Amino acid sequence: MFGDTAGNPHHWDIEAIGTLTEKVGSGITPRGGKSVYVDDGPLFIRSQNVQMNQLDLSDVAHIPWDIHESMSSTKVLAGDVLLNITGASIGRVTWVPQLDVEANVNQHVCIIRLKPHTALPEFGSLQLSTPYFQNVIDSLQTGSSRQGLNFSQIRRIDLLVPPLPLQSQFVSRVREIGGLKSSQFDSQLNMNELKASLLQRAFRGEL
Q: Measured in whole angstroms, how far is the alpha carbon of residue 23 from the centre of its chain?
């Protein structure tokens, strides 16, 4: 829909993340680390929860409410784009859907909060996940191990900013494809279960 990202043949607007956002920042790890985690409470989103264009909460940690409130500046909101900025998973990015409980992030996850009416969160995440932008992120890594991004570097990354109706159309198509993939996955699971059942019956001589 939008042409080659590097060449920008359709001449879409190009804006730095810093001009498109209300916030670029990350959280902290509470003093005591894992020892402060609780069974129930605000979500504590870590780098392993940020998969490519998917927020995986299957093993999410929880922190006490008082710690969550002490980290009020890094509370996660629906629509935030989350980007891993350190370690082996650097560059993994996703967006936050509407959550049933409040959430926060640790220091390895950057919150990119887009201004309303600039870019859709899903579009921003999907764009940052493309090979072109993954190469951009890789080229910005700092330190002797080249495994870290700072907020200044993130703010300087330029994104394509086509009109919002086109962004919305693109996101709708991606959702449709995601629905098809989910249906196909469920069908494959059902087929595998049927195959296993038939094999068991065959070995028992029931066919």
A: 16
pLDDT, one tens digit per residue, over 136-173 is 999 987 655 557 899 999 999 999 999 999 999 998 88
- With H, G, I as helix, E, B as strand and everything else as coil, classify residue 81: strand
Residue 29 near residue 107 (C-beta atoms within 8 A) = yes
Q: Which letter, b or e, does each residue of 61-86 get, where b requires 16 or more Cβ atoms within 10 Å of its Cβ?
A: bbbbeebbeebeebbbeebbbbbbbb
Torsion of Cα atoms, 90 then 91 then 92 then 95, to 10°: 130
Token duo for residue 207: 């066919």
Burial class (CB in 10 A: 0-12, 13-18, 19+), 52: middle
User: For a pLDDT cut of 90, what percent of the chain falls above it?
Assistant: 66
pLDDT at residue number 87: 87
pTM: 0.83
35-61 pLDDT, tens per residue? 999 999 999 999 999 999 999 999 999
**83 vs 107: CA distance, rounded Å:** 11
What confidence tens digit (pLDDT) does each residue in 74-83 have? 999 999 999 9
Q: How far apart, in whole angstroms, are the C-alpha atoms of residue 111 and residue 105?
A: 8
DSSP E strands, 56-148: 61-62, 75-76, 81-84, 93-95, 103-105, 109-114
Residue 114 CA to residue 92 CA, distance in Å, equals 17
